[in-house]
Design a protein that fits this description.
CATH class: Alpha Beta
Number of helices: 11
Strand order of the largest sheet: 9-5-3-2-1-10
Radius of gyration: 21 Å
Largest sheet: 6 strands, mixed
Low-confidence stretches: none
Number of domains: 1
Number of strands: 10
Strand content: 5-15%
CATH architecture: Alpha-Beta Complex
Length: 289
């Protein structure tokens, strides 16, 4: 088994090296939940990688995550941006919820037709597990509207009466933080090279103002956080929807055979290795396995 694992490691490292050559960058792989307990691990992971080539200014992150803590995403972005000026996100499979927020801090996002991002309904810890905050807030608001209309049932009154106001406020704060982070990062990083209008017939060729960037970022944040559009916290949003509904620019490698093969040869083998070993979180770089 040790020989098998060593062989897998050698193949993965060679595939990773090919990706670094393609992107002309450092490349890392992150698999698993985004949890506060991984912050120091992630900091050390990046520092170890950066020590070997301190002059490297671009990082590509292959990300597979169901989501997690928006606060942890903020800390991870601070760590990455301390060491790198340019960051690319590659989503071979899915990056949901907080993973989507993480991607919005990148200069570029790479996806193919089978990749998915998700709604940015923030997940908050309820003492036992992470739960989507907006579902709670939407239900409470629905009950409040029924109370105003005088149609609240006795059972619904009891449900409303038993709500923890401090917990509900923390859900609202989580929502506000999520939207603020996404808007700030889109303007600072994703839209930094958006200098001229390209699609609006009335503005084609005109300079893009900072206010227009902020407006577009707010539109994207609002739509990604709108449960009325997605209906489910686990809804997977494909690249076509991101481009057509959110008007988000994404690098589509569906027809780029070279890049698609590089990503899949690396990602698919590594995710199978992770599944076989039952790892909950897994990080990989040329300096860390």
């Amino acid at each position: 088994m040790q020989i098998f694992d060593r062989t897998i490691k050698e193949i993965l490292n060679k595939n990773l090296e090919k990706l670094e050559d393609f992107f002309e960058s450092d490349v890392i792989f992150y698999f698993g939940e985004i949890h506060p307990s991984y912050e120091k691990l992630f900091r050390d992971f990046i520092e170890i990688l950066k020590e070997e080539k301190p002059g490297k200014q671009r990082l590509a992150i292959l990300l597979n995550t169901p989501g997690g803590s928006a606060e942890t995403v903020e800390k991870m972005v601070e760590i990455i941006r301390h060491h790198y000026k340019e960051v690319y996100f590659v989503v071979p499979d899915y990056a949901m919820s907080a993973g989507t927020i993480f991607c919005m801090s990148g200069d570029k996002i790479y996806m193919d037709y089978s990749s998915s991002l998700g709604p940015i309904d923030p997940q908050v810890f309820n003492g036992t597990t992470y739960v989507p905050a907006l579902g709670y807030l939407d239900k409470v608001n629905e009950l409040l509207e029924k109370a105003k209309a005088g149609t609240l049932t006795q059972a619904e009154f009891l449900i409303l009466q038993n709500q923890d106001l401090a917990m509900l406020r923390s859900y609202e704060q989580a929502r506000e933080l999520t939207i603020t982070l996404l808007k700030n990062w889109l303007v600072e990083y994703k839209f930094k090279d958006w200098l001229k209008h390209r699609t609006d017939p009335e503005k084609v060729g005109n300079d893009v103002t900072i206010d227009e960037k902020k407006q577009r970022a707010e539109e994207i944040a609002d739509r990604l956080g709108d449960n009325k559009i997605w209906h489910s916290h686990g809804r997977m949003i494909n690249i076509n929807t991101l481009k057509s509904v959110l008007k988000l620019e994404v690098e589509d490698y569906s027809e780029n055979n070279e890049l698609r093969n590089l990503i899949r040869n690396y990602n698919d083998l590594l995710t199978e290795f992770i599944a076989r070993n039952g790892f909950k979180v897994f990080l990989h770089s040329r300096k860390y396995f």
